[in-house]
Amino acid sequence: MAEVIRARQAGEKFSSLANFLERVSFEFLNKKMMEALAMSGALDQLGERKQIINSIDRLTGYAKSKQAGAIGGQLDIFGLMDEKVAAEVTSLQLEPCAPATRAERLLWEKELLGMYVSENPLLALRRLYRGKSVSSKSLKQEDEGKRKRLVGILSNVKRITTKNGEEMAFAALEDLGGKIELVVFPRVYQEIKGVLAVNQPVHVRGKVSTRDAEIKLLVDVMERAYFSEDAPAAVAVPLSQSPTQIFAIQLPGDVSVDKLQQLKELLQQHQGDTECVIHLNKRKRIKVPFRVTKSAELEAKVAELVA
């Protein structure tokens, strides 16, 4: 960052992305550094984050060509390049793409800076769930055994295997009141393991445990919370309010138990946001207790399995 500060102090503020690339030494502007500057929001006044990230090679090439030309005077750095490539590098044009979502911007800021800069998603979550959840700070020893709802962001996830060979997890939920440990036992883990990820906003329901004088939440239900791009600020949308989609699977009535077990394992490997329903011989309807990621790949694997 010292090189960026040096270039800025040597003249006026950076007037454009091209101006930035021409003034900051290209030896400093490698791909990793450019990505970090863009993802953290340091270049927001000069260009859109995702567009800059998708144009990294073009931008570093532009910086090198402009500065090498200035240093070398008559040096023709395009001597071995065709005219089309030379034109792309000397004229700064970013790759067209959809802008980064609020969720992406916040995730990048948290990963690179350890904090949210553009906005605090926890404030948005609290506004949305006002009256529908409690703060982790409000939980007391007297709440032992009571079921509570919390909303926040997962800041840590640890998966383990029990002595019985079953998977479970521990996670930390961060809200405006602080942090609380979540315990996800094997049965619930199988239903929500696709949701368990660091920096994932979630809405959680569970039973308060005060064992060993430490307050924890034994999770019963966990849902993703989404950031709505239509809102003026980051707003989390509960899973129940997201557009309804169903992944339907048709099975013959005489399907074997072995096939059903294989199907269950396949669906568990593709957990996601879409409700899944199995129709047996078009008469019996079974709702799968967890959601899946609907994709052409999963559809093909299911078709192959039940064929």
From TrEMBL:
Q: Which residues cross the membrane?
A: none
The lineage, from the top, is: Bacteria, Candidatus Abawacaibacteriota
UniProt-listed Pfam families:
HHH_6, tRNA_anti-codon
- Domain called OB: residue spans: 150-223
Query: What is any one GO biological process for this UniProt entry?
Result: DNA replication
What this protein is called in its record is: OB domain-containing protein
Q: Which domain of life is it from?
A: Bacteria
To which species is this protein native?
Candidatus Abawacabacteria bacterium RIFCSPHIGHO2_01_FULL_46_8
Gene Ontology molecular function: any one: 3'-5' exonuclease activity
Q: Where is the DNA polymerase helix-hairpin-helix motif domain?
A: 2-51
InterPro entries associated with the record: DnaE2/DnaE/PolC, DNAPol_HHH, NA-bd_OB-fold, NA-bd_OB_tRNA
